[in-house]
Amino acid sequence: xxxxxxxxxxxxxxxxxxxxxxxxxxxxxxxxxxxxxxxxxxxxxxxxxxxxxxxxxxxxxxxxxxxxxxxxxxxxxxxxxxxxxxxxxxxxxxxxxxxxxxxxxxxxxxxxxxxxxxxxxxxxxxxxxxxxxxxxxxxxxxxxxxxxxxxxxxxxxxxxxxxxxxxxxxxxxxxxxxxxxxxxxxxxxxxxxxxxxxxxxxxxxxxxxxxxxxxxxxxxxxxxxxxxxxxxxxxxxxxxxxxxxxxxxxxxxxxxxxxxxxxxxxxxxxxxxxxxxxxxxxxxxxxxxxxxxxxxxxxxxxxxx
Length: 305
Fold this sequence. Notes:
Distance between the termini: 29 Å
Strand content: 25-35%
Shape: globular
Number of helices: 5
Strand order of the largest sheet: 1-7-6-3-4-5-2
Structural class: alpha+beta
CATH architecture of the largest domain: 3-Layer(aba) Sandwich
Largest sheet: 7 strands, mixed
Helix content: 10-25%
Order of helices and strands: EEHEHEHEHEEHEEEEEEEEEEE
Mean pLDDT: 95
CATH topology of the largest domain: Glutaredoxin
Low-confidence stretches: 1-5
């Protein structure tokens, strides 16, 4: 266990905007329990791939005295909407308490800087360990067991869909933001894109955190090297927006993502992460193009796996 050099008391959760799945939990309710606090945001692919482990730990060790608390701190503006957070907990089958941290009060109290982040708290309320990002699952579960004072076989976890582990050996394209505050400048056109280049076609408005399509028929092209390609999308409450995906100019066929059929058709209905492609063959450089058939689509960040 990587014990904190300073034993810091777990900060208060009083800054929560709302609690889902539980009444507010404070020192009285948590006293004598081992607590795992998991910071997340609903569109984060790294959290989505970590979540099956956190969910499994909550279920496996609940009767041993573990309380898992999810802290949802939004990255993008549309992630503040309570109904979206509630829907994400339903889709991910999260059955432990979730703190809605829309004002970043809990995030700031923990001095946290990452999605996802795990904080391991002992029965005295002291933070004994932390981990940021994906991975280290076996060690993290051992930390939980040590804090609970038990030792047994680790849980078996098999993430599927967007929760499946990334194909790290073939992942050569980084997370790429599209808005001007964090994004890399796009190429001038989709013709002859180099690896990890992207380009807009049509009439778009480039904002701080996203690009917004002004007229039907606009598209985004991305040259990538990964098994999976995802895009965070929203539409400001407009009617569902149909879109089409092409890989190297062709329909994706068996390499379609969860949110696209074999002919490349998809539908933007709510703000979340959309899986556009999952390679059904050897991973290689490919050009993905997503075209929106109606205006109003908001695109935030491409992620890969």
